[in-house]
Amino acid sequence: MLIEWRNQIVGDKIKAVTWNNYVRHLKALYNFGISQGLLNINRNPFNQLFIRESKRRKKTYSTEQLHKIDHILNNNVVLPDFLKPSWFVLAIIMTLRCTGIRRGQLVKLKISDVDLSNRTIYISPEINKNHDYHIVPISDSLYIHIERLITELKIRKQTDNCQLFNLNLFSRCSRRRGQPMSQNQLTHIFRHIF
Known about the structure:
The chain has 2 domains: 1-55; 63-191, Intergrase catalytic core (hpI Integrase, Chain A), CATH 1.10.443.10. Helix content is 46%, strand content 5%. The chain has 8 helices and 3 strands. A 3-stranded antiparallel β-sheet has the order 1-2-3, with no helix packed on it. Strand 1 and strand 2 (120-123) form a beta hairpin. Helix 4 (86-99) packs across helix 6. The longest helix has 20 residues, at 16-35. One of its GO terms (biological process) is DNA recombination. It holds the Pfam family Phage_integrase. Keywords: DNA recombination. This is Site-specific tyrosine recombinase XerD.
């Protein structure tokens, strides 16, 4: 009966990951009921009902797309206002490209997390998914972008405790002027870059 229900709703109405979430919770409830003697059954009906979840394709840019982005941002191509200033967007792209850090980590970085003299970026446990700290090297190709970013932040009198990547400080079209940059803003940049 449960298998019939699963076959009816998975695919058309819900995804496999949602089904597995339902099963996980119902299985826990039944296990509790069985162990406490609240249910008069010996075997949990939700055992062995998980289904294989398909893995989503990773969202990555091809080498050709990366070259196109570099060309657009380095050659004064006319850009929409939300992609200005282009040096800032290029700093974001190069940081993600050269360090492999996550978008959420990038948005939470502070100026104090960057050590230009040692060419490192410190990823604190508070912003790291696995709650470990990491020290990420700054490559030669990234260094010029981070150096310019920090110079521009100092011109705007930002303290070491301020957000490192904050489009709202530099963009003329931002509606969030004076506020920290959000991960949604970062996603918006990449959604509209092509």
